[in-house]
């Protein structure tokens, strides 16, 4: 494992005070805005611009699927807006871009 894919974004993304046009999607469950370290000492990635909802040691070579999609309009945007507005009913949210990554049945 330790794999990542560099993905060009359909729209610039602001995060951590910076604007990005690409990201590095790691097999290990996180999005990095830098080239991630691939060695076993992943702690080196801390204190950098990273979104890590599922940071763990995953390996799709043993099965499962690792996919992503992004959208600037259509059903994915509508679903994101609906879900976020449902969770925060006192605020209005309207996404102009979404990025969704899925690790499906990856051991």
TrEMBL record:
The taxonomic lineage of its organism, from the top, reads:
Eukaryota, Metazoa, Chordata, Craniata, Vertebrata
List residues of the NIDO domain.
Answer: 53-107
Q: What is this protein called?
A: Sushi, nidogen and EGF-like domain-containing protein 1
Biological processes per GO annotation: cell-matrix adhesion
Task: Identify the PROSITE patterns for this entry.
Answer: NIDO
